[in-house]
Design brief:
single chain; 19 helices; globular
Length: about 350
């Protein structure tokens, strides 16, 4: 396990794979596997942080406050209908849940594994901490590892599932300035609507929209800046160390971990593929007015997925500017991933009664 920790640190530093999280996770793995430290035993430092911040969902919620302070939903205001591709991008979650149950996992374990497909690390941690805390470490490492590999997965799928003619499609974009009142009402309205429909999503969607409201209100710049910088940085560090602290040998070096990584990869591939295929259908239905490339952004890997999609489009045509459309889908994917997690948390216990 010390070797695994060193490998994660190597990937974070040398390969730049999600270094903000994989580096502290890797160091946490080394610390907890030093004989005699008892860091995850009752009263140990990692155990205290785990109980205070992960088992109750506090850390994922705090991270979403910071994420909300970073996001600009302006592109989504211009093309709100593009959120349909973000919805399609969550279908891989449910494919993975079915496959995980087929592979022998319980419904609760399968749901925790499936949420990896949303490409949303905090949501995966939030769901896993409730449904399968014994799988939290492998699920978190798989989620963040694959998030760092979005370009490696996304680009081949785009080349495989779209034609050059489709990748050359240009989409018009006429930017408009939006009244500040709309930017303020949006996070409030989305929070109320989603929370009323899916109560279990309230902590995460509330945190995301609170962070965005801090930013858009323009009256609490210090709070918005702290959420975007100090808060998210401190919580990410504690989260990474503690997740690493869960990775003792009996929880990680087993056949289940291998299955989780395979299922997580299938979830990622399915989510991106469904988004692309939905966009291809929409492109055909509109007579070629929609570039299917943007369908690959309907996940929560923000803004990496949008940036990769834009670059793929420019490889075919240097004057094709897909970034606004890709960002609209990508920000919609951030909301949709939380909704997917909330649906799982809300409905699964009722379905199993």
């Amino acid at each position: 396990m010390i070797g695994v920790g060193c490998l994660l640190i190597y990937l974070a530093i040398r390969k730049r794979y999600e270094p903000l999280l994989l580096l502290p996770i890797g160091f946490g793995v080394i610390m907890v596997n030093i004989p005699g430290t008892a860091l995850m035993e009752e009263g140990g430092i990692f155990r205290i942080i785990y109980d205070l911040g992960i088992s109750n969902g506090l850390f994922p919620s705090l991270i979403f406050i910071g994420v909300g302070a970073m996001i600009d939903f302006g592109a989504l205001f211009e093309r709100p209908w593009l959120v349909v591709f973000a919805t399609a991008g969550q279908l891989g979650v449910f494919v993975a849940i079915f496959l995980a149950q087929t592979a022998g996992f319980t419904p609760y374990e399968a749901s925790s594994i499936g949420i990896i497909g949303a490409m949303d690390g905090p949501t995966a941690i939030f769901v896993s901490a409730i449904y399968a805390p014994h799988l939290l470490g492998p699920i978190a490492v798989a989620a963040y590892s694959y998030m760092s590999l979005v370009p490696v997965i996304q680009v081949p799928l785009l080349k495989l599932l779209t034609t050059r003619k489709e990748r050359l499609i240009r989409m018009d974009f006429q930017p408009h300035s939006h009244p500040n009142s709309i930017r303020i009402l949006f996070p409030i309205g989305v929070f109320i609507l989603v929370s009323l429909l899916i109560p279990m999503a309230t902590p995460l969607i509330g945190s995301l929209m609170l962070g965005n409201l801090l930013k858009e209100s323009k009256v609490v710049k210090r709070l918005a800046s702290s959420a975007e910088n100090e808060l998210i940085n401190i919580v990410t560090l504690l989260l990474g160390l503690t997740i690493g602290g869960t990775l003792v040998s009996e929880n990680f070096l087993n056949y289940e971990t291998l299955k989780i990584f395979v299922l997580g990869l299938l979830a990622f591939i399915s989510s991106i593929s469904f988004g692309i295929l939905m966009a291809k259908i929409a492109s055909y239905a509109t007579g070629g007015k929609i570039n299917p490339i943007i369908g690959s952004c309907g996940v929560s890997a923000f803004p990496m997925a949008a940036r990769v999609a834009h670059q793929v489009g420019r490889e075919e045509d240097l004057d094709n500017w897909l970034m606004p459309h890709a960002l609209a889908v990508n920000t919609g994917g951030q909301i949709a991933s939380i909704i997917a997690g909330g649906i799982i948390l809300t409905l699964l216990p009722r379905l199993l009664v």
